[in-house]
Each structure stands twice: as structure tokens, then as C-alpha cells.
Amino acid sequence: MPTTVKVMNTSGAEVGALELKECWLEREKGLQAVHDAVVAFLAANRSGSASTKTRGEVQATGAKPYRQKGTGRARAGSYKSPVWRGGGIVFGPKPRSYSKSVNKKVLDLALRRAFTERLDAGEVIVTDAFDVAAPKTKEVVALLNGLQAGDDVLVLVNEMSPNLEMAARNLPGVEVMKVSAVNTYFMLLFKKVVITKDAVEALGGRIAGKEVAE
What percent of the chain is modeled with pLDDT above 70? Predict the structure, then answer.
């Protein structure tokens, strides 16, 4: 597979090429790593706030509901009993963490495989720069239109300017983030990935495999 990608300017014209090192890419393994990374990310974002009260936590009178014998009913000693409506819950949910531990090497492999798949599918656009002079949403829209990236796009930059951050936050289908913060989930979430040339190099240095180029 080719490891050279075109570099476009924000007007959509080709201005150069970027050679991708083989240690930045992964085509043979990593499918399970991608699954594990995405599941771990989604699990870590679960609130885990569901909570029920046990019979020891329910507020109710401590009086015996009725006398022990002579009523013909089953004996009962507390209104807090789980068999009563409004009583405690047996084995109910309690606040917990759903986070899963994933090895850093597995996370790097997953991101490397996800990036390679997006690249091979022609869904990655490399640009020489991506920034705006003023915090205006229409300027970001113009940049995306020039690159023909559509309106469902992840934009990865090496350094985030305040103007770019403010200009992009009103676009519901556009996510702009620093390449140091991207993970496998976000790499796969959007239809297109726009990434600056220096961000590609920073991403490569972050996820490089064992075969580090000389």
C-alpha cells in the first residue's frame, strides 16, 4: 500500500506530499485492540450513578406492622422489609465505576490501526494548515468547504488557537481537537478526518510501532 499522501491547502489545491513512515501504520493486526479501546472509552464515560436503598437505608418507622400472632397473615417485623412496597431493595444497583484497564501499547496499536484504515479508505485529508484569523463560524465552514470535507468531520491540529476553538464549537457535526488528545473512538466516529501536516508527524511519533525509522 502507498505510504505517501497528498498535502492540500485550505482552497483544495495540492501543495505537496507527505511520506508516512511504516511504523506509523498497521494493516496486519489490531482489530481486537480497536474493539477493546472503544469499549473501554465508552465504559469510562458511563456515569455509574444508579443507586437504590437497602432496608438499612430506608426511612420508616421501627414499629412492628402488626402483632405476631392471631391475624392469619404472615408474620412481619419491619416496614423496611424488601417484601413490602416502599421497603428496601435486595441486591439493587449502587454507584460504581465501569472503567476498564487497557494497556498503553494496546491503545497505541488500536489508534494506529484505526488511523491506517481511515487512510486506506480515503477518508483522511492532510492539509498544510488549519486556522482562522477571527472566531467566526463561517470561516471554519469556508475551510471545510475548500477541502471538501463535508459537515461530519474531525479536525486534528497540533496546537489549538483560541479563535479556532471558539469558531468551531457551534458546528454540531464538527469536532476540533489537539492531536495529542485524539483516541480510537474519535478517530472512527466521523465520516472524514482533516489533519494538519505537523499533526500527522506528532501523531506518528505518539503511536509509532516497534519498527522506529532510522
Answer: 96
Distances (CA, A) of 126 to 4, 68, 76, 149: 11, 79, 72, 11
Rg (CA), the chain: 27
Q: What is the CATH number of domain 4-47+98-207?
A: 3.40.1370.10
User: Phi/psi at 89 (nearest 5 deg)?
Assistant: -105, 135
Strand partners, 153: 174, 192
Of 2-11, 69-78, 150-159, where does mean pLDDT reach its minimum?
2-11
The per-residue pLDDT for 210 is 63
Q: What does residue 192 show for φ and ψ, rounded to 5 degrees?
A: -130, 150
CB distance 135 to 163 below 8 Å:
yes
State pLDDT tens for residues 100-111: 999 999 999 999
Pinpoint the residues of the chain covered by CATH 3.40.1370.10.
Answer: 4-47+98-207
